[in-house]
Amino acid sequence: MVRLMSKKITILILSLLFLPLAGFGCKGLSQTERQATQPVALEYWTVFDDVDAIRALIEKYRAERPYLTVNVRQLRADEFNQRFIEALAEDRGPDIVSIHNRALRQYESKLSPMPSSANDVTIRIVEGKLGSQTIVNTRSRGLISPLQLDREYVQAVKNDVIIGGKIYGLPLSLDTMAVYYNKDLLDRAGVAEPPKNWEEFQAAVKKMTRYDRKTGRILQSGAALGTGNNIPNADDILYILFKQSGLDFATRNGLSVLNAVPQGGTRGELSAAMQVVNFYTDFANSTRDTYTWNEDMDSALDKFVNGSVGFLFGYSYHYPVIKARAPQLNVEILPLFQLNEDQRVNSANYWVQAVSQKSQRKNEAWALIDYLTHSEDTKQYLDATGRPTALRAFINAQSEQPELAPFVSQTLVSDNWYKGKDYQTASRAISTMLREWLQTPPDPDKEIEWRQEILNRAAARVNQTL
Fold first, then answer.
1. CB within 8 A of 204, min separation 6: which ones?
2. How far apart are alpha carbons 151 and 196 in whole angstroms?
3. Residues 6+ apart with CB under 8 A from 138
4. Which residues contact 3 (CB under 8 A, 6 or more apart)?
5. What residues are paired with 332 via a beta bridge?
6. CA dist., res. 419 & res. 106, Å (int)
7. How many angstroms separate the CA atoms of 109 and 270, rounded?
8. Which of 45, 43, 41, 53 is nearest to 378 (CA)?
9. Most buried pick, 88, 265, 293, 381, via CB within 10 A?
């Protein structure tokens, strides 16, 4: 009897000792552990249309961090700036923000650079025969260094996010420009195979363009090209054409040099830069045989979706828009045409996840960004959204996916031409330049000087935004 009572007492004591550790909460945790697992709430502002994929990845992250809540809020791109500035002024701004790579320097003073590490607290519930036990683990999460970033991300990321030797954000993905085409329109025009270069592209455009015989109005465009007001990312296309021609559009620091006059040029002849602009605008010049587009037309994307444009230059984010608005459209995608395959060029267009300077939770914010953008689970986001990767490790796998291959194949040779603080103004300067270029020179005898002045004004307007 004594032995039996002694055994029961032992079991009871062990149960009482273990009970405080059961479940997650303050009971059974040390003061340090209780402090480390206090509730943390992060505000995350993004303009992505794939917030569900971001939220799903965050929930996976929270599985071992139940003390953390993240409110993901989606804003329109055109309202972000005003909302962000107002929120910061009222000390209620977000902790994490998605910033376009062309706007990173605009917001630099309002962002917090990445530290070398972040404290990361995880919680596991271990089930045992006598109940469950809460295990709290605190570790230092090493964050990516500039050298490591250079090795693991494509070059465009390094050129954008490292400012003054510090990293100001990381991308979830990275987009490049490719060529969408309406296969049915090519077939009807007798173009058996899609073009492989700019020369074949010009020939295909001529075959596909249809005019009203009486009015000369364009009924069907071979391509949406030649203007700036109704073509998305026209500045990117022009930048690519400059670089493919061996000309600088802007310096590494962002200074616009599209107006540079090469030494040794012959007076009275078009400069190389002028010839590039002519090549682009000839598609909107009614006196040229490649005339297929003009400034009076609707948006290039709208015209492509309604089936009246053969070729559209766009990014991967355009694909779901096209498929949603015109699921019946027979669309295929080509990598961007190149002048020299040994010197391939493309444009990098993407969003960076950054931390607000006013955030009171910078540590937790950077730890979350590191997980979202720089972990094995980043592939989960890429698979769910169908976006091209910015990480070199995932390029080969994505290259096997037909819809992604045209974009992913160009990420290693992509870059961003703009490094200033007001991309919208700079982009409008390029658009204005293209509109002026299409006008008739007031004095044919001074056309070269007139065109040089157009280039000079555009470069000056861009440089005013630096």
1. 186, 189, 191, 194, 195, 222, 310, 311
2. 32
3. 36, 119, 120, 121
4. none
5. 181
6. 9
7. 42
8. 53
9. 293
Question: What CA–CA distance (Å, rounded) separates 8 from 461?
Answer: 86
Going by C-beta distance under 8 Å and a sequence separation of 6 or more, which residues neighbour residue 28? 20, 21, 22, 134
Q: Which residues contact 332 (CB under 8 A, 6 or more apart)?
A: 180, 181, 183, 194
Q: Which CATH superfamily is domain 20-174+350-398 in?
A: Periplasmic binding protein-like II (3.40.190.10)
At 33 the pLDDT is: 77
Cα 100 to its chain centre, rounded Å, is 7
Q: Tell me, what's the pLDDT at 264?
A: 58
Structure tokens at 394: 């995932």
Q: Which residues of the chain, if any, have pLDDT below 70?
A: 1-28, 128-131, 263-268
CB 244 within 8 A of CB 410: no
Q: Vertex 113, ends 253 and 77: CA angle to 5°?
A: 75
Q: Give the pLDDT confidence score for residue 171 in this predicted structure.
A: 98
Residue 193: count other Cβ atoms within 10 Å of its Cβ: 8
CATH 3.90.550.10 fits 178-347+422-463, yes or no: no
In this chain, the answer to whether the domains covering 20-174+350-398 and 178-347+422-463 adopt an identical fold is yes
Report d(CA 364, CA 306) in Å as an integer: 46
Angle 67-72-78 from CA coordinates, rounded to 5° = 155
386 Ramachandran zone, left/alpha/beta (phi>0; psi -120 to 50): left
Q: What is the pLDDT of residue 192?
A: 97
Sorted by where each begins, the domain ranges of the chain are 20-174+350-398, 178-347+422-463
User: What is the pLDDT at residue 15?
Assistant: 39
Q: Give the predicted TM-score (pTM) of the model.
A: 0.90
Closest-CA residue to 111 (of 353, 367, 350): 353
Residue 21 confidence (pLDDT): 35
* Residue 190 backbone class (left: φ over 0; alpha: ψ -120 to 50; beta: rest): left
What is the structure's pLDDT at 209?
98
